[in-house]
Every structure is written in C-alpha cells, then in structure tokens.
C-alpha cells in the first residue's frame, strides 16, 4: 500500500572555502574601518572630561584671585628656615581649598604611572606626579625676567586676559632623560627659538607641554577662566613688532625682549 505523502530528504550545502574567506575579509575590512572610529570616539570622550577639569580649575583660579587681590598663587615657598626644608608644591598645594578633589588634576588620557597617592596629593613632602596641568611661567611671581618679556604675577598686569593661556597640559616625561615630568609650570617665558631652552628645534615645539594629547591637540585654560580645545598652530605664532629694549635683571645690561609668543604671552595689547 502506497502512502499519499512522499518523503523528501533535503541536504544543506556547506560554505565553500572561498565564501568563508570572503566573509572573513569583509569582517576584517569593517573592523579596520570601525575600530579607529571607536578609538577616536573614546579619545573624544576623554578630551571632553579633561576640558571639564580645566574649566573647573579655571573657576577655582578665579575664586583664588578674588580672595587674594588678583594675584597668582605661589609657585613654592620653604616650610622651614634651613636650605633643605620641604617646599610647597606650587599652585597644586596652595589652591587645595579651591580645588578640593585631586581628580580635577588628572587628565584621563595622561598615561603617567608614578602618581602621588590621592591621600597625599596636598602633602609637600610626597614625591610623584600630582597634576596633568601646568601653569604659565610668566604668571609665577619673580619667575620670569625683564629680558624674557617681564613678569606678570597679577591679573591687572595683563591687558587681554581672555587671550592669554594660563594653564595647559603638561608633558608626561622629561625630554632629557624620560623620567616623569613633575614641574609646576611650563616655560613660556623661556621659549625663544632658535634658542633651545625647553624648545626642541627638530620639532619646533616645547618639551614641557603635551600639545597632541587629544586628537592632535590639547586643552588650555585662559586667564579669564574659560577653557577650550586648541591645536598648536592656533596658539603659537611669533610677532617681532613688540620687541623693545629694556634693562635686564642685573640692573646694568640693556637689550631686546623676545618676540611675542602667541597666546602664551601676556604682553598682548
């Protein structure tokens, strides 16, 4: 007796080697396209977090200025009378009441491993890197000299505070020996190419700033408190029109001041 239904056997055809290779190639191509985009997206998020840190630091400085007659915090001072007494760690220590959280001092893209412990970030005797951000050396009282363009330890001495960079992102390692950079300020007052003081002639860039930390640029805070992302060529330029003859710090020698150094220079008018 025959069944009214016929039974069919179906077979599945397997992928050929060529088809598998094509699929793998497509996946690899997509990965090559998408992974850099994901990486840039992550770095963009870190850049935004860093910029938020700088904005809050800018606000902290404004509060400090109001309380201290528009003067900048001390770079450092002896905590004792002898020559080897511990020294305050610059604005990071002086401004602890205004910053409050050590997390504001660390950029998420800063890969430094030798950080001072959070519990010790405001202790003068503790060594280690404390901050990803660094103060313009022109604003440190008594730091820069007339032959370097002068010294600007209070806001009233700067004509265009909204155009002058106060804080920038610090280099992570010293160019000289590769050890962690723990400096409190960057040497804008020393930058004077072709002179090589804190200036790398081969790159035409300074050695104490991280000017490409975020997508070929870096975050800065201006003297009026606002912060923004910039690229090096947007903020560095030479202007010889402001060169003037002055009496140098020895009180005897006279000579020219350096050229204007873009947005790093408080001599803007």
Overview of the molecule:
There is one protein chain. The protein is an alpha+beta fold and 269 residues long. 24% of the residues lie in helices and 13% in strands. It has four helices and eleven strands; from the N terminus they run αααβββββββαββββ. The chain has a five-stranded mixed beta sheet with strand order 3-1-2-6-7. The longest helix is centred in the N-terminal third of the chain and has 51 residues, at 17-67. 31% of the residues are buried.
In short:
This protein has 269 residues and is α+β, with helices and mostly antiparallel strands. Helices cover 24% and strands 13% of the residues.
Parts with pLDDT < 50 across at least 5 consecutive residues = none
SS strand fraction? 5-15%
Instruction: State the helicity in percent bands.
Output: 10-25%
Number of helices: 4
Mean pLDDT: 84
Question: What's the assembly state of these chains?
Answer: single chain
**Biggest pleated sheet:** 5 strands, mixed
Can you list the strand order of the major beta sheet?
A: 3-1-2-6-7
Helix and strand element order: HHHEEEEEEEHEEEE
The computed structural class is: alpha+beta
Number of strands: 11
Radius of gyration: 27 Å
């Amino acid at each position: 007796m025959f069944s009214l239904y016929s039974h069919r056997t179906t077979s599945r055809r397997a992928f050929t080697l060529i088809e598998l290779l094509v699929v793998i190639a497509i996946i690899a191509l997509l990965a090559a396209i998408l992974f850099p985009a994901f990486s840039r997206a992550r770095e963009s998020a870190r850049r935004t977090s860093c910029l938020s840190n700088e904005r809050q630091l800018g606000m902290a400085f404004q509060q400090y200025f109001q309380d201290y007659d528009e003067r900048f915090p001390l770079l450092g001072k002896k905590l004792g009378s002898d020559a080897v007494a511990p020294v305050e760690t610059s604005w990071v220590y002086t401004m602890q009441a205004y910053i409050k959280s050590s997390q504001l001092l660390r950029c998420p893209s800063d890969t430094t491993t030798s950080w001072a412990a959070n519990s010790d970030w405001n202790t003068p005797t503790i060594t280690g890197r404390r901050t990803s951000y660094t103060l313009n050396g022109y604003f440190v009282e008594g730091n820069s000299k007339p032959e370097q363009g002068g010294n600007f330890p209070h806001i009233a001495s700067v004509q265009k505070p909204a155009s002058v960079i106060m804080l920038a992102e610090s280099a992570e390692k010293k160019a000289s020996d590769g050890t962690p950079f723990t400096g409190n300020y960057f040497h804008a007052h020393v930058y004077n190419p072709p002179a090589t003081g804190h200036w790398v002639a081969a790159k035409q860039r300074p050695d104490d700033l991280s000017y490409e930390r975020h997508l070929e640029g870096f975050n800065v805070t201006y003297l009026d408190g606002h912060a923004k992302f910039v690229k090096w060529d947007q903020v560095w330029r030479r202007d010889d029109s402001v060169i003037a003859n002055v009496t140098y710090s020895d009180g005897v020698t006279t000579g020219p001041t350096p050229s204007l150094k873009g947005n790093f220079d408080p001599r803007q008018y």
